[in-house]
Amino acid sequence: MPFGCIGLRDEKNYNSLSDITDKYEIGQLLRAKEFCEICVARERQTDRLYICKKFLKKDGRKVRRAAKNEIFILKMVNHPNILQLIDTFETRKEFYIIQELATGGDVFDWILDQGYYTEKDASNVVRQVLEALAYLHNLHIVHRNLKLENLMYYNQNNRSKVVLRDFYLSRFENGAITDPCGTPEYLAPEVVARQRYGRPVDCWAVGVIMFIL
Q: Which residues cross the membrane (predicted)?
């Protein structure tokens, strides 16, 4: 750099906390997950309820990467069987993801309550999962964490649709994927063996889901 020139570092434009709280009322903590905290958010202008996922940057590089990854993926997708992104914010200390609120509970809890699925009900769930998965795979997106807990009923209606959630482990299949991740019971053999893998690992997970249902 020539003498006398001043190097100016580009400063990132962060949201302030008031940017979030002026638009949404963030409720109490519902539960804490591996990478984030889950709360209900009420949009002040409309009174609509959404889900709010808060990722704390101080929790480390993996958490920051998970938040950025989920935001990036969710901004790209739009499908009736995928929980849709509503808003995102980044402050100096947190990432916030605002999504649709699915109120029907997850498929895992439904099994715990009801005991079993009929063949008709199971096929209806699997059909919707496969439709969402076909959409993702056409975009070369690997979900990498399909499981019963990530399949949500959109509402409490008996004919409610099923939606996929939690994309913080998702990846584009644009090169070799070898890092193992996901839930052990749903992992494909190539993931366990730390071999190169891609979209077929999601199909294996759907097979596990079908077997459980």
A: none
